[in-house]
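User: My collaborator sent over this chain with a note saying "see what the structure looks like." That's all I know about it. Can you take a look?
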Amino acid sequence: MTKASDPQPDGSTPPPSAPADAGLGEGGGLLGRWFAPVKIPRDAIATLRALAARGSLVFVMRSPGLLGFLYLRWFLRRAGLPPLRAAQGFHGVAGWLARVRRTRRAFEDAVAAGESSLVFLGRPAAERDPLAALVRQQRDLFQPVFLVPVLLVWSRRPQRLQGSIWDVLYGSPESPSALANAIAFLRAFRRAVFDVGRALDLKEYLAQRAAEPDASVALRVRGALHQHLAREFRTAVGPPLKAPSRVREKVLRDRSLRAAIEAVAAGSGRPAPAVVAEAEKDLREIASNYDPVFVGVMRTLLSWFFRRLYTSVEVDDEGLARLRRAAADAPIVLCPSHKSHVDYLVLSWLLYENGMTPPHIAAGINLAFWPFGGIARRGGAFFIRRKVKGDRVYTAVLRAYVKHLLRDRFPQEFYVEGGRSRTGKLLFPKTGLVSMEVDAWLDGAADDVLFVPVAIDYERLIEASSYAKELAGGEKRKESLRGLLGAARVLLRRYERLYVQFETPISLRQLAAERLGARAASLAVDEAWGGEAERRAAPAAAAGAGEAAEAKRQLVQGLANRIAYGISRAVTITPVGLVSAALLSHVRRGLGSEEVARRVELLRYVAAEGGARFARDLAGAPSDPRQAGPIADAVRRLAQDGLVRVEVAAGDTIYQVVDEKRPLLDYHRNAVIHRYVAPALVAAAARAGGPGGSAAAEVRERALWLSRLFKLEFMYRSGASFDEIFESNLAFLVRVRAVDCAAGRVLPGPETTALAFLADLVRAYLEAYHLAAAAALAALGSDAPRQAPLDRRALVREAMERGRGEFLSGRIAVREAVSKATLENALEWLISQRVIAEEAGKLRLAGPSSTAELRAIMDGIAPHLAM
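Assistant: Without extra context I'll predict from the sequence alone. Here is the result:
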């Protein structure tokens, strides 16, 4: 992970200092002034050094250019790599000015001697093709030759389908004139990026084609290099831009959309032109108006914004490099966690700063208000309605637009959680846009699609106070110009660090083959559908659509789950998250410093065993809040914000959470809790047996029941069975002496405080679900007072009021259990289990056994709440 310098938004690194025996030349002269700021992928130099130790480096560029040559020669000297000795395809005055050997003999000598050389692809005659000569030479060489495609990008001007006066003056973006190169580089050298592509091992390539003629192999190599560099260039500047009218025309011609329009017109009796007009209106509401010039201007403003608000932006270097490589291979869909409106800005800024095209972002229609909507559209946002309510024309238009973005290889970004998480915890994934991406892939828009889970984490959240009000029962404020202007006050504060972590991309094609095997060939595009509500309301119809429809449903849900699990794996374990988890999982007044240190140390141990990613400063830092380090800094900031009270008594330091502020601290605990859910559930199941313990089979059954109870709250490890997860976490509890296992029984171990601590990590959720069941029984049961039928909001409101009373009277131990978001999830779970039925928006008990089922749920939770 790298720290952003005021802040550095990327995973790049400047070239290292010149070696002692290198002359000043370009390194210390005029060219060094222009070339030093160019960003280089952090792993590029190490990768090139490793290749140079094994063989000869032949760098490959697309078009001859003096600027590219000079930069490459400067870079190799500064990085201590084999110097550039020869070039091919470099003709005319520029080649003469470069003062480099350009003969075929010089090129072959440089390759044989293990020195660096350069090939400009261009369009040479067959008899003068340097790649054909290189293929012949490689057959006689022992050491491999590595063809390394490189790209120096300084202009972000995309190609347009219709030329302009600028193309006449400066040439096209893919083949700019020398004048355009000079002007653009001098204007943008501080934002330039030097990209090093995936090297081609020519010796290995030839071994796989031993019988193929050299000329044929050379053509294949040239084609592969051309394609790779073209994709790298498109990754940097984006696909050719079309005028908005051209985009609308293309999308409205989509065959699936046309079929949907015809079906709606036939079924409703409306004239087809009227339905087409409706589709065009919907498309105008949805579509972005991406403007690279505007994005370039906003880049400066966003750099200032992040520098002003955050101490630093911590970026996953390896993940960023992996993302760039993935973007050259297939269309990418970024799937970040969603905790703040800042999420919309950070990835676009990071990608632009690192020489990549910013994504087209799916945003809620609530953000399309004036003037933000127009600004966001020019930055790449496209807007979608939260609920489509069976609107088949709208969903068909949205699906056609998503297909257009995928076919044109625009990077995309959407939030699999749907809305922002008010609790800090990853929300259960929605499948609407995931299904549309899968449909577009099945319809041939791309050979593969790469979904990239991204975790964006904050040490201090801008929306923290508004979220706390919503969780306490307050209504969410509608986004507006007034709210946007009022948000300017956030610029008066600092919000500590922001973390961005990238998980390994998920290949849709590979996932389909893994999950479905031969059934993947039978997958088919859905007919236009009315959204998630319609799909949930008609499960029988979906099931009756046949095996292919069921296979498609499994793939979509599996992909959504894999994305959500990937996000959870990428979440950064922060000092404030560790401190919050340690302090909140305690139902009494305060904790002594030694107990806080033990809890933080245990949390770090659990997370490290699971391969978690930690905040930069935590490596080797003390867990004791009294010792200088990130844990002490986190406690100090929480105390300054009035969330934690620090007292000294009887020679010990006591840390108390201010009771009214627990929901604010709960946000940070929830941000990291997924790392501890599995051991917490097993610990809760073990503790429920009391001092005498329980049979291992009983503990297993309790843990299984809890995992099903919280299936809408937490994402469990993907690709592992429940028994595997249970056994590994029970073994962990034995290792930390929280439990003992003997003669088939699970008993409390010597470290009873560790067992209680881990079990209490989920106490707030247990109390919330107990409260939801009790409120449903009181409001909907046979003994309930006669009243008008309740909808979801009314029942949650009654549960909130009941919860306040139970908290004040002591029957609920932790304030954060009375959470609107958790109660809504609990109600959704009761409906999904068919304990409660919902008809026309009104709730009732699902059947005669529902009362007993609600009581059974309460009785099942009760043993886990013992203190």
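A starting point for your reply to your collaborator: The longest strand covers residues 145-153.
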